[in-house]
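User: Predict the full complex structure for these chains.
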Amino acid sequence: MTEAKTDPRILRTRKLIMDSFIDLSSKKEFKDITIKDITTEAMINRATFYYHFMDIYDLLDKALTEVLLVNLNGKEYENSELNEKTLVSLFTAITDFQTSLSTRCHRGYEDTIARIIRDQLEVIFFRMLERQHPEEVEEGLKLSATMLSWGLYGASMEWRRSSDSVSPEEFIRAAIPFIQNGIGN
Amino acid sequence: MTEAKTDPRILRTRKLIMDSFIDLSSKKEFKDITIKDITTEAMINRATFYYHFMDIYDLLDKALTEVLLVNLNGKEYENSELNEKTLVSLFTAITDFQTSLSTRCHRGYEDTIARIIRDQLEVIFFRMLERQHPEEVEEGLKLSATMLSWGLYGASMEWRRSSDSVSPEEFIRAAIPFIQNGIGN
DNA sequence: TCCGATGTGTTGGATATCCAACATTTCAGC
DNA sequence: GCTGAAATGTTGGATATCCAACACATCGGA
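Assistant: Here is the predicted structure of the four-chain assembly.
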């Protein structure tokens, strides 16, 4: 299994940094958060920050990914089918995530957030497709996963834009027949 | 000034250990808390624990002292007189501290707790007496501080024992004339 | 324009922490 | 009693973190 076991100091320090960053994010805008702020809050040296992250954007990226994964892992898609229930669950997880972000202040980084969401969705979709269609070539499954991730993300954008307050569940259900059966002809 | 500046890793690790211990104390009895429990929660190695503390009793001691000092430091007795107001404030700080402990589970360690409270009270009393009576010899001030600390602690025990729910303020005020003016003859 | 102040990154040597292994103690269960 | 499992302490070598110093970029005010 090639289990590599990362040093616990690394796990602890990353957690301290990420927690501090998430905590600060609820108090200041991202652009006003300095690396010194983070390291002071985390009680670690500034040099240590650079041992773990390229720069503050790298941290933003990894912290958001982490938070999103927490949102998603609660649902454990590992062994579930790509069916209506799963799609609804994924969609609400995304809308929840974005709602939680809107209270913090990450304005101006929508593109970063979008990429992170799509990346994680793509991984999840690909795993599911691989399990459900072992006979297909990886190429096609990969591309399908990509398109599904873009599609679902786009749907979440559309849901936010729509002023009528329909629930995420209802909203996405309208599209599910097309996802499952294709557009036909 | 001989400022020695302790390594921030030491401060951070001690804080992690103490916080974990205090957290665990609210979930288990002290006798059921193992050092592995603490180090796991704190995300530090067991060997590191022994770098900072002799054993778990040493930790108990220092953690309780820390908590008590937080209770007391809010009042900053550094520059205040040893008058009625200060005495009432000290007394309520002690009763508050003991009440907070009774929710956690430190039964069987009353003597440790008592010693910690008396030690800290003695330091505070001595500093005040030294400032108010610079002409007196240290010997007498020290002993007075000792007796005051035992006395105030004893009063807090008596307050807890008394079933009639009189407030700490009222309770201690009854003794203040004797403290301030002596027993006379 | 220039300047001081503040933030970003980087580096080499010092040190706190980790790990694995070990001996010892405690204690529940047979 | 005995025995295995779990907890307590201890150690020497490996590694993550700290520190002080440095160069560079940014920026608001004289």
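Chain A has two domains: 8-53, 55-181.
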